[in-house]
What we know:
This protein has one domain. With 460 residues, the chain is mainly α. 86% of the residues lie in helices and 0% in strands.
Amino acid sequence: MFSDFFQQIIGFLVVILLARKLSPDGYGFYNLILSTVTIFGVIAQFGMSTVVIRELSLKPKKSASFLKKFVIPFRFLSFIFSLCVFMIYNNYTSTIENHWIIYLMLMILNISLWDFSESIAFGHEVTRFSSILNVITSILWLTAILLVPEKMLNVHAVVIIYCFLHFIKAFSYLIIVTKNFIIGYNEQESYLGGKKILKMSLPYVWLLILVTLSNQLPFQFLNLNSNHTEIGFYSVGFKLMIPISIAVGTGFKAVFPALTRLYSINKKEFQNKIKLAFDFIIIFGTLIAIITSTTSHYWIPFLFGENYIESITVFNFLIWFSVFSILDSLLSNGLSAAYKEQTLALIATIDVVIIIPFLYYASNYGANGLAIIKLILGAIFFLYHLIIFVRVLKVKIIDLNFILLISFYLLSLLTCLLVSSIFLKLLFLSFFVLFVIMYKKTEISLLRNQIIKKIKNFTE
């Protein structure tokens, strides 16, 4: 989490520099490339990350055999398959010109190598390798953008630098995990067969493809129905969400092994941890959304320039959507820890079937239309995801505390997005925040009194 925080500060500076130096049109095309790479990078991963982390955390002594016999061959074949699908897609849509294709292939390879290496390290509950490599690469990335003369810093130069740095990072990680967890590691025969691994992975690869499509298709649809400038506006709002999503995603991935074990040995404690996470996400997510959306019309033009003033509305809607997105990630990790990947795949399929036509239609109204529709659908999806989560795992999440916190979030959202007067905004938001503070203070006091009473009874 510390390395992600540092990395995203650097990444935020890079986003500002690139957006200002490339212009909305150039920055939009650069993000179209990254969007395309992300989609086909998911295919190259083949949904193996969660399976590898889960199985290595449960049977670490059998990791070398498991990786050599099954994971490595699967990942190699999935990478080749992703390149074939990309070539067919690009030939049909002509999204990317031919002279860019070699860079996209290298970027897909980088994603595949990094995900493979990180899943092995995280499966052994070792996160320091990711931390060090991410921090070093972030510093080099920022340094390169600062040192390259502005006249030479075009989209082509940016893509070359990006490819080179991320290849070094991914290849270095591969060497590290090979040395530490594959070569010379205590060899024991893997308890899994190829068919079982394939069966466990398929729901995840399907799930990852669907989730990635819901995130990346807006870029593709804007390219079809609008222009690169609208992609640039949407990219600024979307990029500002990435630090949050990456930090949360890495945090969930890092605690996933412990969450898996907790569900198998103590479901009551598993339920309590999920409820605690809900409280934390809603309270702090709402406060961050209040602060950033209320002040966005000041700092976005200041940071990115007047050319990106259209990104303010995009950001305001997406920052509130991000709270729903993080809560959904918590639900997904909970289901995955309980081996409910088939349920996850089914939910994601329903989501994408619903969201694709809405995104395609909204892209005709530019970046603002896409941001608004994502927030509306995010609220609807979270509601039915929560109902499924509670019924499938048979846990009690929805109580008075949860309803009050969700109400706090919704009232704050409506105030920030619909009330124009800054005085009324501050008045309403102050009331909502004070109410939550008083409520949580009372709740903590009651909990403290219960603990004191139990201790007293025990001593007596």
